[in-house]
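Hey all, quick one. A colleague (J.T.) asked me to put the S-adenosylmethionine job into the tracker so the inputs and the structure tokens live in one place instead of scattered across chat threads. No bug as far as I know, just bookkeeping. Sequence used:
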Amino acid sequence: MQPNEAARGLFSSVASNYDRPAEILSLLQYSRWHRYLLADLRLPGDARVLDMATGTGAVALKLAKLSGGQVMGADITRPMLIQAKERAARKGILHRLEFIECSAEAVPFTDSVFDTVIFTYLLRYVSDVPSTVRELARVLRPGGTMLSLDFAVPGPMVYPLWRLYTSLILPLAGAAISPAWMRVGSFLGKSIRRFYDRWPENRLAELWRDCGFPGVQSRRLSLGGALVMWGVKVT
Ligand SMILES: C[S@@+](CC[C@H](N)C(=O)[O-])C[C@H]1O[C@@H](n2cnc3c(N)ncnc32)[C@H](O)[C@@H]1O
């Protein structure tokens, strides 16, 4: 199965019940990590912001509150986008957001149109990581900021605990929620480990530098279980 199809299948099945399980299974870190990601972001009133892999719009809705401009939420999974739209409508801010169904691997916008580009929990699902990061950088204007967040594998002190949680407790906790969440819970630990083997923090930072972010910075959160990366595009 192609990566896009696998991701669509996985996320379609949890879309109608996503945010609360995500919060619980991340041991209450899911919203905290989003808040950290956006904490220092200063957006001008007319900013155009892209939230790629927006899912149910958790980050996009926060961005819409931060900025007077327009926020574009993009994702390949239609049921996730439907949830995002309904959520924005319930909060009365649907007019501040637009949603588009597309892949991060082929972003349907011209170069340099966004002031800020954000993606959270995306790169593990794409088939070509470098070309996806390059594609996201392409639609960001020079001087604009790109930010990302994903799970990471903690260092040796914490690893045994993390491994126990992701290999054993997460699938069981997922199963207690629903069969669809059991699939997610069983898949996640392996997916994080495989991605992190190929794309550890320093290699990812190198990729960002190659894509026009020479001053890329990163920070590990929650004992190393999450990685936030951000940088300003210079070319
Ligand atoms: C774990 S969810 C995260 C959703 C949201 N970013 C958040 O922080 O809550 C991952 C999202 O990535 C989306 N996704 C996976 N592959 C994608 C791709 N190639 N292009 C765009 N979105 C993709 C999935 O559909 C899913 O909604």
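Adding what we noticed when we looked at it: The domain at 3-19+27-151+199-232 is CATH 3.40.50.150 (Rossmann fold). The beta strands are 48-52, 70-75, 97-101, 114-120, 140-151, 217-221, 226-232.
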